[in-house]
């Protein structure tokens, strides 16, 4: 975007320092002016390397703070500093099948959008838990998924007791962490 381009064009990656007497700043300037900075770096003592690294870290932090201020100011000037948004949660749900049901049932799935969720709802809704939900409004229905809306405190989520939940067929497989190197071995969702 234009804002990002303007800010990045103003950034300067040299060794400008507010305290040129600092050893790290002196080393940085010498490396900038050296014909072979790699050779010079190889000849630095461990204390000089620590000083140089510390200086670089301070400079990086100062640049990041400067960029953050410039972004904040640019967004404010562009009228984009604050947004009027309505928070929401999307909850994927499934219908339950009773264990002693004689017929083979296909669990119906749904997606519930909770507009303006309460803090209690954010804290109480737990993945894999069985709830009785009331106060939901249908919004769309397609072949496989039922779409419902909930409005904050007008929707009630009552957890089903463990003894009652045991009467239904299993429906939930907990998620597990997978290393990125093994991501190709993960089976795709249905």
UniProtKB/TrEMBL annotation:
GO biological process: double-strand break repair via homologous recombination; regulation of DNA-templated transcription
Region (Disordered): 1-23
SUPFAM superfamilies: BRCA2 tower domain, Nucleic acid-binding proteins
Recorded superkingdom: Eukaryota
Annotated protein name in UniProt: Uncharacterized protein
Protein source organism: Aegilops tauschii subsp. strangulata (Goatgrass)
